[in-house]
Design a protein that fits this description.
This protein is mostly beta strands. It has 6 helices and 28 strands. Helices cover 9% and strands 46% of the residues. It has an 18-stranded antiparallel barrel. A 3-stranded antiparallel β-sheet has the order 9-12-13, with no helix packed on it. The two termini are 30 Å apart.
Length: 475
């Protein structure tokens, strides 16, 4: 499927080049970036690799990043489209070329269709540990597929300007090496925005993800017909060709997150409070694990040139997992298994053994540590016990003597599994500082440099640094 998407993209660009009347109204932006990183240990510090869309290796490296991008045409037409191709060439122990993004997007009024490999938009100025969603961060590479979405909130006709909605519907393919090969991903979301007064608005909604289909070396080929697709979309149980667990529960590996967000817009500052609650089964959907989730507070001081322009604080908690009750509560009077409501074991699954990972990286919050890839290049989910943790995160952006900077510091305590908790519990304190130097006259490159460190008992003490030389322009 990925090869087909690539061919479609190339064909699309060729059509644009021949369609001169339209092509002449568009600009084509390019970026070339030279990037190098080094550290005192074999592995780079945590924040030098986390939330980089899987494009930064965990080892010392040199890389070349290139991209071409054409944005939506700001014309009066209701229809417009954009496209992008970006790649990273890594020079390390084993040289590699990564596809970062390769997509085309079509927009009609408030509806947008994306086809290919496209990153999610970065929110909260890139200071959030999980991009505001504990289940779907910017920590891994993006999957190939399609996405249909509403760009902006649309007012409901009966709501009299106080209630609006937006959402998306998408399907993707896992094309990495996995415990269950050729698995698919269905994803959708629905959010409502309520206007409370002239300064306050409330957003509530849900993100829903399902891994399904594919071929497991242990459990065999998984149901993948159109009828099965309708089952996973609606959350229904599987048919006779599904495993026993999927016949009792919902077909596929379901997970998701609820969002509650309060936005304030003031004259001197804006602030946002958000709570991203994760769930993997009925107990989570019914908030039995209500303690678990990502809690965040973001402030925009509306002073782009100030010492502190943006401030973010976050707290992530995953210890509860709906409690320590066993996963199977026995059988009812009719002989049907009674599903348990505890030991949720976030981001892991029996059938889909690679869990919520992609190309070795956790798809959700990077605090969930994935297992190392085996000799076949397969990741077996996240580390059991390390998915129970408490984490704090502080992020700042601003200007120091007119030099823009970005600062992130975090502290994480890993708890261990129920009845086998770590003693003592390992902790990790990590930091990241990035600065962008003003352009030097006649020097064509933008210089970005920074440092990061790890200290504590979870990862070895480590310090590293990086430098980026960037050239941007228009063809």
């Amino acid at each position: 499927m990925f090869k087909k998407i690539t061919l479609l993209f190339i064909l699309f660009i060729c059509i644009l080049n021949y369609y001169k009347p339209y092509a002449q109204t568009r600009s084509l932006d390019y970026t070339v970036e030279l990037n190098s990183a080094i550290s005192s240990n074999d592995a780079l510090p945590f924040w030098m690799t986390a939330n980089k869309f899987g494009s930064v290796t965990n080892k010392n490296y040199s890389a070349v990043y290139t991209s071409i991008f054409s944005d939506f045409n700001p014309s009066k037409s209701d229809f417009s489209f954009s496209y992008k191709a970006s790649f990273t060439g890594l020079k390390e122990a084993k040289n590699n070329i990564l596809v970062n993004e390769l997509y085309t997007s079509a927009r009609y009024k408030n509806i947008q269709l994306d086809l290919g490999v496209k990153h999610n938009n970065i929110i909260w100025e890139g200071l959030s540990s999980s991009n505001g969603n504990i289940v779907k961060s910017t920590n891994s590479r993006s999957l190939p597929g399609y996405n249909i979405s509403l760009l902006n909130y649309s007012q409901l006709p009966f709501a009299k300007k106080w209630l609006s909605l937006k959402g998306n519907y998408s399907d993707y393919v896992f094309n990495d090496k996995r415990m269950t090969s050729n698995a698919r991903l269905h994803a959708k979301s629905l959010f409502f925005k309520s206007t409370l007064n002239s300064k306050l608005e409330l957003i509530t909604g849900i993100n829903h993800y399902v891994q399904w289909g594919g071929n497991s070396a242990i459990f065999g080929k998984q149901p993948s017909s159109f009828k099965d697709y309708l089952r996973i979309v609606s959350g229904k149980s599987g048919g006779s060709d599904a495993t026993e667990g999927d016949q009792i529960n919902a077909l596929g590996n379901h997970l998701g997150s609820y969002l509650v967000q309060l936005n304030y817009v003031g004259e001197k500052l804006n602030w946002n409070f958000y709570y991203s609650h994760l769930f993997e089964d009925r107990s989570g959907r019914e908030f039995q694990n209500w303690r678990d989730g990502l809690y965040g507070f973001f402030i925009d001081f509306k002073k782009p040139k100030a010492l502190i322009s943006y401030l973010l604080t976050e707290f992530t908690y995953t210890k509860h997992m709906s409690g320590a009750s066993p996963p199977d509560q026995g059988y009812d009077e009719f002989g049907n298994s009674i599903p348990g409501r505890g030991l949720d074991n976030y981001f892991n699954n029996g059938i889909y053994g690679s869990g919520w990972t992609y190309f070795g990286n956790t798809i959700g919050s990077p605090y969930f540590t994935s297992n190392l890839t085996d000799e076949q290049g397969i990741t077996q989910g996240v580390i059991v016990g390390d998915n129970r943790f408490v984490a704090f995160n502080l992020g700042l952006k601003g200007n120091l003597y007119n030099i823009p900077y970005k600062l992130i510091v975090s502290h994480t305590t890993y708890v261990g599994w129920f009845n086998a908790e770590y003693q003592p519990k390992p902790t990790q304190f990590s930091g990241y500082l990035e600065v962008i130097f003003p352009k030097i006259n006649k020097f064509p490159l933008l210089i970005t440099t920074g440092t990061a460190f790890d200290t504590g008992t979870y990862r070895p003490g480590n310090i590293g640094g990086f430098i980026k030389l960037t050239k941007k322009g228009i063809f």
